[in-house]
Each structure stands twice: as structure tokens, then as C-alpha cells.
Design a protein that fits this description.
81% of the residues lie in helices and 0% in strands. It has one domain (2-89). It has three helices and no strands. The chain is elongated and about 50 Å long.
Length: 90
């Protein structure tokens, strides 16, 4: 039961990561940089770092999409590891 809960929470966070990643890719494309929303699965960390660098250069602050995307990514990892650990404990 606990494995299922953690796995579902991990999937929800994974979808959140991908949705914010798509928004980051669209922001990069609107700034004239090459970023393809369908390649987020493979290049999300690169897009996040480019987005962070570009927004810091433009405004002096990290862009508003970076925080939620990295938070969802971290929570995905935490919930996945919790599901694995709770599965091994049973």
C-alpha cells in the first residue's frame, strides 16, 4: 500500500517536472535559443541550466520557472527512492 502511494506521488511530481520543463523550453525558444519541448525527457537538466543562466543575465535573478521545476524533480527522486525502500522493507 505504501509503495503505491509513494509511486503515485513520484509520478505526479514527474509530470510536474515535465510540464515546467516544457514551459522552460518554450521560454528558451521565445528568446531565440534552440530548445525542443519534445526532447525534455532527455535534455531537461541542460534546458534548466541554460534557462537559469539566461534569466540571470537578463534580470539579475533566476527565472520563476526554475524553482518549481527543480523542486518537482527533487521530489520525484525522493518519492521514487521512498517507494523502492518501502518495497524492499516489505
Amino acid at each position: 500500500m505504501l509503495v503505491t502511494v509513494f509511486a503515485l506521488l513520484g509520478l505526479i511530481c514527474l509530470f510536474g517536472t515535465f510540464s515546467y520543463g516544457a514551459r522552460i523550453a518554450n521560454e528558451l525558444r521565445s528568446r531565440g535559443l534552440s530548445a525542443h519541448p519534445l526532447l525534455i525527457r532527455f535534455m531537461i537538466f541542460r534546458y534548466m541550466s541554460v534557462y537559469r543562466r539566461v534569466t540571470i543575465e537578463e534580470t539579475g535573478e533566476v527565472g520563476p520557472l526554475y524553482g518549481p521545476c527543480s523542486t518537482f524533480g527533487t521530489l520525484t527522486l525522493v518519492f521514487t527512492l521512498a517507494a523502492i525502500a518501502s518495497g524492499l522493507a516489505t
